[in-house]
Amino acid sequence: MWRQGEWVYTLLVLGILLAEVWALGQMSVVFLGRFFEGTSYPQAYSALLQGVILTGLSLLLLSGYILLYHALTTAAETHMRQEKEASVTRFTEALFGTAQPPPPPWSKPTLEALLQMREILKGAEAQKLQEWLEAYPNPWEGPLRRRFATRATRLKALDALAQARIPRALPLALPYLHHKDPLLRLVAARTVARSAPTQAPGTLAQALLNADLPRGALLEVLLLLEDRAVPVLEQLLSRGNTKGLWAALEAVGRLRLLALARRTAPFVAHSNPEVQAAAMRALLRLGYPPEGHADAVVKALRSPQEFLRIHAVRLLPLLRRTVAESELWKHLGDPSFYVRRAAAQALAEFNYELLQRAAQEHPDRYGQEMAAQVLRER
């Protein structure tokens, strides 16, 4: 990204480069004429002297600008840091005391201080900060609506809106979900997730479905919704494609949304193994048995895909006890090291005595060793 003042440095270097090219060109013409005896010695000497003087002045000017730039930048950064610290103090006194907040219009350091506090604080204090931000004219609207704004300017504006978390940022950020730049799409999605009010789940869900986001980015956005995630996840579970279903199921488990456990259970029988695995992980995190879909879990145990067998084995303790014990004992002899380990760890939590017996009596040598290894780790 460009720092303030670097365009002046660019123009200065370009000017010096052009001057040096001119001086070298002039010297080349003069010395070529001297070689063919078409130029006198004083003329050649004068051209050489001019080139040396021009080079010296260019170096002096460039060095002086660099030193002055760093001196002024250091002073400006010190002033901005002090102003930001003073603003934090005044906002804190206004939040927890009887003082008034800094009066608008706010300078850039003051606004940055307020955004950082909004990012850190929660509860009633955060609500108060948000009221101040909502009452303030939106300084980021111009860069986002401007047609020829730079990428860095738009990224800064979107990031600031994400920190502010004001609902009026939603119509500004939504168009960027379809921008050709993937980084702008990602930052816009974060802004939308943090700014969306609870009253607009349909708009947000549809925007996320239409946005061309990687599934990891989509999951991050859903996690940022926090307590506003349930209505959006319900719509994704109803209308989402494979990518949307995977992200929604992951979010259900990571956010521990027990209210969506019943909606999650049918996906253990989904045709896509990635979605199946995500549903199993979600149910395991919730501690919720796949009611009515235990057969799909048992079927996944026979899958040729190792990762699916691993997740199915981990979910077995939530099934009927006789089924769980039988399948865990059987999968201690699975060809995959990771499936055997998952079975032994599940037995350690589910039926420790059966794990001890497996370490002595299991018919598969590798199953015995795995059971013994997990026992030693306890």
TrEMBL record:
Pfam families: HEAT_2. SUPFAM superfamilies: ARM repeat (SSF48371). The keyword Ribonucleoprotein does not apply. Coiled coil: none annotated. The chain crosses the membrane at residues 47-72. It comes from the Bacteria. Keywords: Membrane, Transmembrane, Transmembrane helix. InterPro entries: ARM-like (IPR011989), ARM-type_fold (IPR016024). This is HEAT repeat. The lineage of its organism: Bacteria, Thermotogati, Deinococcota, Deinococci, Thermales.
